[in-house]
Amino acid sequence: MRAAILQNNLMHFNPTFSCCLKPSFQFREMRLKDFDININRRRGAIAALSLVLLAKDSISTKLAYGFDFQLVAPDQTIEEAESGIIGHAQALLQVKELIESESWGQVQTAVRKSSPFLKQDIYTIIQQKPGNERPLLRKLYSNLFNNVTRLDYAARDRDASRIRECYENIVMVLNEVLSRL
To answer: What is the DSSP string of 52-105?
Structure first.
């Protein structure tokens, strides 16, 4: 078997069928050189993909703190979420100083840094609530983070009136969420 694989010209049997007739077999040659090129391309693609995946974490932290849409860390407990939610909420609300100074790039960075932690905390706490309380909390959760996303887009567009409107909505919804949790 091994001797057949190492030959320069490998023969493959590919059956072709005609309509209701006996099958006929055609021979097709595949040179070992072509086979090696495919393997080398595959290895190259795997190496490049693994490099990208391994370097993703170090590259993404240097970018503008893109939104993290991971909902729940598997190792976060309800106690950790409850103890961290106030600090993360305050970090999100500290964006007001940057809004007043009209530092739009810094507003985006601060919002993107603080909102994923708050999102994770609130989601973890909502999951621990009884089933009859969850729909309202999920609606408030959705409203809160839709306003966070709108604030980020408004900061990107440098639209001061929309930024202030979104910030006021965030404060209002965040206070309601915290009072219900």
So the answer is: HHHHHHHHHTTSS---------TT--HHHHHHHHHHHHHHHHTHHHHHHTT-HH
